[in-house]
Structure formats: C-alpha cells, structure tokens
Q: What sequence folds into this?
C-alpha cells in the first residue's frame, strides 16, 4: 500500500491582523511506502501534525491531493473515506486519546466494533496486541488509571488493530521517559518490518536511528535528509 | 449503542445533572396534565351526576342547594308538592322528578352528618341511571345507595334517626361532594323524615311529608333554552326559584379554566426553561468532549455516527428521565389526590387508566423529544467539526 501527497499544501486564515492567511504546509510531494519507517522531524509548530492529518484524511489540503494507491482520498464521500480510514490507515494522534468511558481493551477493540459485531477472534487479537505493547495487565483498567506511556501504547495497539497498510504516528513519544520512548519506537519499527508503511512525526532525535528515510519540516517546508 | 451507555454510566455526575432536568420536565408535564384532567373529569362527572338541565327549589333555598350539591354542606328545605305539577306545566319542560333532602344528625358510618337524598323511582331520570351502573336492580324500601366516600360496604346497615337501612350498592366515585351523600327512594326517605320529625330534630312547616318536596329536577325539551325555562318557572310560580345547572357549575368551570390556563403556562414555561438549560448543558458538554469525538473520527467514525452518538445519549437521558419523572409524578398525584382535591376545593376525579397512561406517555414523549431537540445543535456542530483542527488545538 502506497500513500502519496501530490502538490499538497495547507493554508489557514488568520482571524485578526497581518496577512489574511499563512501556509502551515507549503506545496509538497511525498511518498510513504510499505515496509518502511519514515521519520519527519521538526520543531513544534513547524507543520508536522498538519502534514500528518492531511495524509490521514482528517484535514483537507488547500491545494493538491492525497492518493492511497490510485484513489484520491479527498474525492471520496465522508462514509467511504471514514470506512477507508478505519480499514487502511491507523492513526496515533498526539496526547491522551483514549475514550475515558471505555476500558483499555474496549478502547483497543473500538475501531473494529465501529463496523463489525463483537467476535472472539478480535477479542483474542486485541489481547495479543496489548501484550505486544506491554500493557496486558491493564486490559480492564480505565485510561485515567494509566500513565502517559501506557496511554501511548494503548493508542498504538488501537491503531494496529485493523492491521492497516498505513500507520501515521504524531509525536507518539512526547513526554515519555527514555525507556518508554525506546519501547514505542521499537513497536513502530516492528510494524514497518511487518510490511506496514509507517510515518512518524516527532521532535525526538532518537527517532532518526530507527528511520528508513528521514525528513525535516521547517516553516511548512519538507526536505529530505536521508 | 454500548458506547452510548458506557458514556452515560461512566460520567455519573454529568448524566445525573441532565437526568434531573428531564425528570423535572416530565414530572411537571405529568403532574400538571393529571391535575387538569382530574379537575375536568370532576366537572364532567358533577354535570352528569346532577343529571338535570334545571333544578327548582324553594325561593330562599337557592344558595343552600349549591351548598348541598357543590360544597357538601348537609341540609334540607321543603316546598309544597303541588309545585311539581305547576313546573311540569311550564312550556319547554319535558320531564320533572322531585327529590327530597334530609341531613342525618349522625350515623354509624360517619363522624359528620350525611346528606340523604330521596327520589321517586317512577319519575327519576337523574339518580337511577347511576344506581343501575352500580347495582342493576330497583331499590327496595329501607335500602340506600351510598356515595363512594360513605364508610359502609354493600350489605351493611346504616342507622339514621334510629332507623336501620341497608346499603344495597355503592356508587362510583365522582370526585364531588355528591360522593358524601346517600340515595334512597322517596318512601324510605319519608319514613326517615317522619322519624326525624318524631324526634323533634327536623321542623316542618307542614306536618305531612307526603305533601312536601325539596327540589324538582327538570329536563328541558329540545329546542328550548334551559335559561328561559328556569326564568319562566322563577317568575310564574310563587316561592319557587329555578336554577340552570350549567350556571350552577359555571363558577367551578371558571376556576377550572383558570387552573388549566395556569397549569398550561407552567408546563410551557418549565419546558422552555428546561430546553434552554439542556441546550446550554449539551453545548458545554460537547465542547468539553470534542477531542473524544475527534478520536472517534480518527479511528473511522463517520460524521453521522458522531451526531448519532450525541443524539443517542440525549434520547436515553430523555427516556430514562421521562420515566422517572412520570413515576415521581404518579407518586405525588395518586396518593395525594384527596389532599389536592381539598386544597383546590373543586371536583377532582382521577382520570381513567387509559387517560392516565396517555398523560404518562405524553410526559415521557415531551422529555424524549426535549433530549434530542436540545442536543441537535451540538450534534450538528460535532458532525461538522474539523478533526484535524481539534487535534491541533489539543496540543
């Protein structure tokens, strides 16, 4: 599965003063390939998250298009785009993103249950996933009982549940200690080695060591380093 | 669906606050509707039980008649029986039936005096239809039919002026003061009247009970106005005053109308206020939860799914709150109906099971509608939100 950005940019309009708008992401071409871990580094506010959200089908580009294999995802209606994202694109958003009313296991299984009936198979796979990310003892805990690192690992397990072809991770190691940072990066690397196209946007320098390709985002401009 | 219930259960404070509003709404709608329906049924019941278009009484007893029939103050008055024939001759009169009033001093059944009303079975069109509903046979001498509030069961005996009478039947409740009366045929009443005179407890202007009546119930022919017939009788027959029964209950009808209007306004005000408060509450809650909804979008929920989640939560809050509100309303209205009746001082008769269920359904429905209605704007907002921007805002 290949995800491509073709001439993709995003501008935002200012509410008051100055120029009417600014570009968070300048016109960019980008390709994310299966089995590769691609890392985009950059300071806070450089446009990394905006770039990732556009690739995820969550923020429509001002110009250009996003192609998943041969399909322009923003040409799809909401139902098809949502279903496509559910099946093919796993997203790990920034910060705490678990639903507080659900347990860890329920959160992990949620992407499947949005469109399918409960099944033993998915229960088993969700249990395997939380074991893989190292939170198997917390299956029946609620997100407010988890540490920041455990919450991130929950988000990774949730993003992997549908075995997506694309995995997009936005600062998954933010605020984590070194040990947890290493664990999360290893999980993403493993996903790439298992055939998933993984994009990691981060300001964590250690991430570069895990990257198959490395980019830098600065002022909305993306440039390849490796 | 599971997510909706988990959201409601895992946020007990938020759910309880919204439920409270729904409960309050349904309670007001159910309580108010039941009160108005009870009063309306009481008035209909009173009109039906009076059973006549016009009632003629001795000139000075007009107010006393209202006291007896509407206020439940036991009493008696009498006029010459020959007036019955004169009234029957009046133009526009279709049927007449005399009645006889007697107030007991005390009776085995009751701590207070009881109104005894006698009627003539051969001419009666007012009392017997009700007795037939409760009894089905002709009333024999020394038998009475007791109003619903009389503390005696069928087959038991009551004593008035040392005379024993058997309770042959009990009437259905009317919610009016007529529930405190007993009915008997004219012969039995005359026996009781004779006993009262013998004891010196009732003073009669003329000593022969056979030549007296208390009131004459009049049915007016089609095409004639009850008002005109009453006026003719009052003008043309000396010492007799005729009352149009519609006018007699018009004061009650006016009070009922006032209470209905007030209750209606109160229900609308409560509904509007609840809608506003709930709309604000939903808006604040959705604002607080927009990141949660953004996450649902991230994992593949459609915009419609997000709106359905918000509306679903609001629907179940309305449904559960409505059911609790109706239950609370029923616990307030049914056990305390006597107290409400006493406080209002108006005929009050609990509506039929069907009407009560209708009011309960309407109250639940008002609450169920209020939930999604007040959350609709928030649901639209959630469905239109830009997930990418929400996720950016949170960081």
A:
């Amino acid at each position: 599965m290949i995800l491509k950005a073709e001439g993709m940019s995003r501008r935002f309009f200012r509410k008051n003063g100055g120029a009417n708008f600014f570009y968070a992401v300048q016109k960019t071409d980008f390709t994310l390939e299966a089995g590769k871990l691609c890392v985009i580094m950059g300071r806070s506010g450089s446009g990394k998250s905006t770039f990732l959200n556009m690739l995820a089908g969550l923020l429509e580009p001002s110009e250009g298009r996003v192609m998943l294999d041969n399909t322009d995802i923003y040409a799809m209606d909401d139902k098809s785009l949502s279903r496509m994202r559910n099946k093919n694109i796993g997203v790990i958003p920034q910060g705490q993103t678990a639903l507080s009313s659900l347990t860890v296991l329920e959160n992990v299984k949620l992407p499947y249950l949005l469109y399918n009936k409960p099944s033993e198979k998915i229960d088993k796979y969700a249990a395997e996933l939380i074991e893989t990310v190292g939170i198997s003892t917390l299956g029946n805990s609620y997100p407010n009982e988890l540490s920041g690192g455990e919450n991130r690992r929950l988000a990774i397990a949730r993003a992997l549940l549908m075995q997506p072809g694309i995995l997009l991770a936005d600062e998954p190691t933010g605020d984590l200690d070194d040990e947890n940072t290493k664990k999360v990066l290893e999980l993403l690397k493993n996903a790439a080695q298992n055939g998933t196209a993984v994009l990691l946007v981060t300001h964590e320098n250690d991430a570069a060591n895990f990257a198959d390709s490395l980019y830098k985002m600065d002022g909305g401009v993306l440039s390849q380093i490796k | 669906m599971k997510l909706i219930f988990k959201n409601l259960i895992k946020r007990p404070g938020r759910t309880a606050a919204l439920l409270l509003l729904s409960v309050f709404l349904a309670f007001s709608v159910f309580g108010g509707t039941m009160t108005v329906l009870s009063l309306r049924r009481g008035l209909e019941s009173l009109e039906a039980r009076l059973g006549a278009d016009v009632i003629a009484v001795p000139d000075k007893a007009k107010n006393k008649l209202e006291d007896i029939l509407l206020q439940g103050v036991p009493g008696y008055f009498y006029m010459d029986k020959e007036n019955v024939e004169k009234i029957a001759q009046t133009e526009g009169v279709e049927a007449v039936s005399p009645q006889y009033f007697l107030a007991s001093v005390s009776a085995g059944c009751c701590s207070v005096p009881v109104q005894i009303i006698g009627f003539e079975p051969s001419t009666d069109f007012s009392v017997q239809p009700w007795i037939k509903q409760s009894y089905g046979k002709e009333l024999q001498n020394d038998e009475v039919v007791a109003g619903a509030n009389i503390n005696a069961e069928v087959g038991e005996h009551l004593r008035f002026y040392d005379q024993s009478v058997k309770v042959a039947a009990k009437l259905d409740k009317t919610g009016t003061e007529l529930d405190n009366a007993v009915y008997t045929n004219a012969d039995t009443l005359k026996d009781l009247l004779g006993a009262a005179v013998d004891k010196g407890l009732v003073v009669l202007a003329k000593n022969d009970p056979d030549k007296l009546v208390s009131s004459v119930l009049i049915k007016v022919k089609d095409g004639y106005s009850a008002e005109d017939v009453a006026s003719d009788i009052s003008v043309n027959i000396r010492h007799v005053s005729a009352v149009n029964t519609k006018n007699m209950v018009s004061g009650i009808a006016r009070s009922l109308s006032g209470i209905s209007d007030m209750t209606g306004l109160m229900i609308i005000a409560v509904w509007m206020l609840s809608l506003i408060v709930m709309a604000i509450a939903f808006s604040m809650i959705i604002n607080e939860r927009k990141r949660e909804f953004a996450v649902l979008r991230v994992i593949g929920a459609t915009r419609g799914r997000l709106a359905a989640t918000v509306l679903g939560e609001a629907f179940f809050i309305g449904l559960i709150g409505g059911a609790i509100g109706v239950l609370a309303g029923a616990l307030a209205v049914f056990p305390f109906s006597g107290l409400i009746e006493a406080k209002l001082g108006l005929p009050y008769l609990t509506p039929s099971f069907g009407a009560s269920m209708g009011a309960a359904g309407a109250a639940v429905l008002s609450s169920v509608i209020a939930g999604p209605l007040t959350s609709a704007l928030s649901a639209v907002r959630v469905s239109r939100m830009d997930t990418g921007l929400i996720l950016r805002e949170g960081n």
Observations:
- Chain B has a mean pLDDT of 84.
